[in-house]
Design brief:
Helix content of chain A: over 70%
Number of helices of chain A: 5
CATH topology of chain B: 3 helical TM bundles of succinate and fumarate reductases
Shape of chain B: elongated
Number of strands of chain A: 0
Strand content of chain B: under 5%
Helix content of chain B: over 70%
Order of helices and strands of chain A: HHHHH
Order of helices and strands of chain B: HHHH
Structural class of chain A: mainly alpha
Number of strands of chain B: 0
Number of helices of chain B: 4
Distance between the termini of chain B: 50 Å
Mean pLDDT of chain B: 93
CATH architecture of chain B: Up-down Bundle
Shape of chain A: elongated
Number of domains of chain B: 1
Largest sheet of chain B: none
Radius of gyration of chain A: 20 Å
Mean pLDDT of chain A: 92
Oligomer: heterodimer
CATH superfamily of chain B: Fumarate reductase/succinate dehydrogenase, transmembrane subunit
């Protein structure tokens, strides 16, 4: 096999210019990984919150800490992006929006919808 | 490199079915929290102990952990090429998910019998 491959090969993520559809995709993966990583802590919080009023208030106190609030905000974004991008990927399963221009529009739509949902829920939760 | 039992149509379908269930449950949960907020020290345990909510939350935990297993497994198959490393990380992830599931079920069971 002739080897004359001059294509640039980057594993440097900063140098890879992703199209907007690519960002929907990689953020779907990153948000999923983040949500997996906090699973044990979420279960711990559920268990604690169900152990009487004292347990509920202990869980509430843990979540009220500024660092918890910051992590919660990142996780809120993670779950919303994972949700909205996931719906978009379900549409691709039905061959909806596969053409390049449409795919780009859907990707922007994902980010627009998630920004709106995040703002609404963040106001409800954190303010 | 083949990893028997880790590829194919079955996990693909499970990932989508669980996704739809999780999405519907989250919409239900957000609606409940917005409309008749039971997330306070007086109502929360009672709300979770209601058979309907207890069973749905249990199903949500199963669906979420299974969904996480398939998703994380895909990431591992993409980024961990070494067979031994792969087996090690997959085992760690499976242990974390099974442990979380058992812990969640313990919490759901205890709140019912109290």
């Amino acid at each position: 096999m002739a080897v004359s491959d001059n294509r640039p090969f980057f594993l440097n993520l900063v140098k890879i210019h992703l199209p907007v559809t690519g960002f929907v995709s990689i953020f779907h993966r990153i948000s999923g990984l983040l949500l997996f990583l906090v699973t044990p802590f979420c279960v711990y919080l559920l268990d604690l919150s169900l152990q009487g009023k004292a347990g509920f208030n202990a869980a509430a106190t843990l979540l009220a800490h500024p660092i918890s609030q910051l992590i919660s905000a990142v996780l809120l974004w993670s779950i919303i992006h994972h949700f909205i991008a996931g719906l978009r990927f379900l549409l691709t399963d039905f061959d909806i929006g596969l053409e390049k221009k449409q795919a780009t529009q859907y990707a922007w739509l994902v980010f627009i919808i998630e920004a709106i949902v995040f703002t609404l829920l963040a106001v409800e939760i954190f303010l | 490199m083949s990893s028997p039992g880790l590829q194919g149509l079955r996990p693909w379908i499970i990932q989508r079915v669980s996704a739809v269930f999780i999405a519907l449950y989250l919409v239900y949960l957000v609606a409940v929290l917005l409309l008749c907020n039971p997330l306070n020290e007086n109502d929360w345990a009672g709300w979770v102990a209601t058979p309907y909510n207890n069973i749905l939350l249990g199903l949500f935990i199963i669906a979420t952990l299974w969904h996480a297993w398939i998703g994380i497994r895909d990431i591992i198959l993409d980024y961990v090429p070494n067979v031994v490393g792969r087996l090690l990380v997959l085992t760690l992830v499976a242990g974390t998910l099974i442990g979380s599931g058992l812990w969640g079920f313990k919490a759901l069971f205890m709140v019912v019998i109290q």
